[in-house]
Design brief:
Length: 506
Amino acid sequence: MLAYIGVSVAGLAYAPELRAQTPQAQIYTRLGDNQRFDPSIVAALARQLASKPFVQPQNNLPDFFSNLTYEQYVAIKSRQAPIWGSEGRGIAFEPLHRGFVFTNAVDLYVVEDGGVRRVGYESASFDYGRPNLPNDIGDIGFSGFRLISTSGNGKPFDFAIVQGATFFRAIARGQNYGAIARALTLKPADPKGEEFPIFRAFWLERPAVGSNSITVHGVIDSESTAGAVRMTFRPGDMTIVDVETTLFPRVNLEHVGLGGIGSTYFYGANDRRDADDIRSAVYESSGLQMLNGQGEWLWRPLHNPETLQISAFVDASPRGFGLLQRERTYETFQDDDQRFERRPSLWNEPLGDWGQGSVQLLEIPTDAEINDNILTYWRPKAPMTAGSEVAFAYRQYWCWSPPERPPLATVTSTRVGRGSTGRRRRFAVDFSGDMLGDNLPADLKSVLTVGPGTFQNLKIWSYPERKTLRVAFELDPGNENACEMRLILEAGGKPISETWLYRWTP
């Protein structure tokens, strides 16, 4: 069975005797039995880490596990029931084995009745699905954990996985895993390379009976900063995660990403570059939704470009942003295995004023659907200085559609194809909403701006039976290799649709 190693929270000195117990030797603390858990200790550990040079985690993973293929890794199954699964608390968890690309070890602790206990690894707790397991593995720790909902009348379901770097993902009931969140993003698309912070350890508080929530504390570490994070998960038909993070920079941080979300966009109706596939579309998220500080709703369809594209949507005090999957029909994808229509939308709602900065969007060329080639995050304008302490918080909604939606017509389709001549490209953008039914405003108009480049042959078609209006036009880029477009429906001098944004590249 999984071993619980008793520990306490007395003192903050590094305990060398724990080095033999834990595969992660960089937890600079002393933990022992029968002491009260205090969340402030997690921040103290991160602060202490930041005061010392960063040390790469020791990789003690046997080659047997580090050389596993994906299929061999996912074949590893736990022989034990989930921790707290038989206690009727509504939420349980299961430690995840190391292996494949998940080679870093994290220490897992449980907080029960205010005390701390470490979850120890035992090889007998797992079924490896293959023979020739090496002897004397020892305690190699875990790569992360999965959270399981056991409450309600429905069947238990995995609703979150925390594993790899500072990545985690969640789903609502009935969904498949898709978009992935990042607790911290550092220097993405930097010419010198992105910096990937890691989780060092987690403390999981045993849920109260009937609470349908679990709080997880973690320590983040990287070359540039250390940090403490507190995540409260509430699973259900919409899974909500509150994330509170405090960073302790070792150096001046010029490029920090908050609320990072990664996803995949391979091809769709607006971008079928070299897609020789029986499926109609392949993507986990269809676009980037933003509600800026001025109350404007923005929609930016995703695409798979020929070259790296970086977009910055400058804002102050953002009210929300996220990667949404708006396509919810099987017919959109025709994929019997992946079922992309069941992937979650992920909406971030800042808690408190995030000040000035920009929502950044990275679209990375890919020739395979297995690559996460989309990344979005909030980049604060002001750098974080070495030795400072910076706190921020936000709420995540892993959902079918976000709880706050535009009170306007929304973009339901973007189609792009060959234009009439030369480099021209033809666009068709569909807006849908109740206001686009039988009683269209007499002064309704579409407002399209393009720069650089020009547009021609703008036409509007109304489909009141579907409460849809289509705007079609041709983009003439001339000799340009990037054109920014902005389209909105107006009536009475006011917007009646969200704002459609698009960057065309060859």
